[in-house]
Amino acid sequence: MLIYIAIALVNGICISLSRSVNGRLSMERNAFYASLWNHIIGFLFLTLVILVMSGGFSGFQFNAPWFAYIGGAIGALFVAINSYILPRTGSTQAAMLIISGQMISGVVIDQILHPGHTLWAKLAGVLVIIAGIWVSKVSAMKKAGVDVALWPTLPGKKTRLKH
Q1: Which candidate among 89, 121, 122, 127 keeps its CA 20 to 30 Å from the CA of 40?
Q2: Model confidence over 35-75: pLDDT tens digits?
């Protein structure tokens, strides 16, 4: 089990690095340009890995149901959206919001596939993550001198606290 935890942690590092690099690339053109290059380079890399590890594409079959292949389109959209938001929100906030979205959709998918299994515990976990994001944001806003009482009703407007 420890090896799987280590692999998952390395994967998390790869995701953070990829997000940062793609976010930087999106600043040169746009998010879809960054996503395109991400996937072109990824395709070339995976092609090389397949050729080296398995000796080629022999036996490559498409046996999964049609909807199993839309993950590529969803992944490309994810990279494009992430490339757009990361330079605007920062790495930590983008990661926390993305993880929150993953947790929420994970709870919904689990509820659809396995109704009734520990729904309340999962929802509590999601709420803790969202509360953490909120506390982090409010703390940063207070340090910047923003009146946090007005924050939800005044998007984009920074009102200074009166001392």
Answers
A1: 89
A2: 999 999 999 999 898 888 887 777 667 788 888 888 888 98
Residue 81 to residue 72: CA distance in whole angstroms: 14
Query: What H or E segment, with its residue span, contains residue 9?
Result: helix 2-28
| Beta partners for residue 146, in sequence order | 160
Distance in angstroms between the alpha carbons of the first and the last residue of the chain: 54
As a whole number of angstroms, the distance between CA 109 and CA 104 comes to 9
What does each C-alpha distance from 46 to 39, 42, 51, 93 come to in angstroms? Answer: 10, 6, 8, 30
pTM, full prediction? 0.66
Do 157 and 143 contact (CB within 8 A), yes or no? Answer: no
Return d(Cα 121, Cα 133) in angstroms, integer.
19
- Cα dihedral 46/51/55/59 (nearest 10): 50
> Each residue of 92-126: pLDDT tens digit?
788 878 888 888 888 888 888 888 667 777 778 87
Burial of 38 by CB count in 10 Å (0-12 exposed, 13-18 middle, 19+ buried)? buried
At 117, list the tokens.
């299994």
